[in-house]
Amino acid sequence: MLEIYTDWSCLNNPWNWWRAYLFKYKDKTKQDYEWVKNTTNNKMELLAIIKALKALKKSAQKMKINLYTDSNYVKMWITEWIKKWKQNNRKTANKQDVKNKEFWEELDELSSKFDINWYWVKAHNTNQYNNIVDELARKWARSIS
């Protein structure tokens, strides 16, 4: 079972946006982070997950993955709301384009390649690895503040 934790941080909005992810497999962890300019918190939530899935090796397609996010927005979208969006020809109920459409399409395409269980975890709480990835993103955001 592979576990993925994702998060982002922004200090001194709008310049210091950082996304981070952490892979946990057995007793090993791997982490990565990146600075992104001129974006939003929702895009960063999506981008952290997209970057994590893109970093997976092809062999991960055969593994079960537990993906943890502290964004209920992302978790609900990818597990429930996206079905209705697809039924509506990728439009909202009001026949409008959804915000961040290109990110949702990319996440949908990437996640379809893997066997992912999606979990929401409360931010800044008791989940050790969510706290680690949160601190990783914050650390890098602080480093250029």
Q: Give the CA-based shape.
A: globular
**Which percent bin holds the helix content?**
40-55%
CATH superfamily name?
Answer: Ribonuclease H-like superfamily/Ribonuclease H
**Number of β-strand runs:** 5
Strand content: 25-35%
Radius of gyration: 15 Å
The CATH topology label is: Nucleotidyltransferase, domain 5
Structural class assignment? alpha/beta
Strand adjacency order, main sheet: 3-2-1-4-5
Please give the domain count: 1
- The tally of helices reads 4
Mean pLDDT level: 87
Provide the CATH top-level class: Alpha Beta
The CATH architecture can be named as: 2-Layer Sandwich
Order of helices and strands: EEEHEHHEH
Unreliable stretches: none
Largest sheet entry: 5 strands, mixed
Distance between termini?
37 Å
Describe the structure.
This protein has 145 residues and is an alpha/beta fold. The protein has one domain: Ribonuclease H-like superfamily/Ribonuclease H (Nucleotidyltransferase, domain 5), CATH 3.30.420.10. The chain has 4 helices and 5 strands. It has a 5-stranded mixed beta sheet, with helices on both faces. It is globular, with a radius of gyration of 15 Å. The mean pLDDT is 87.
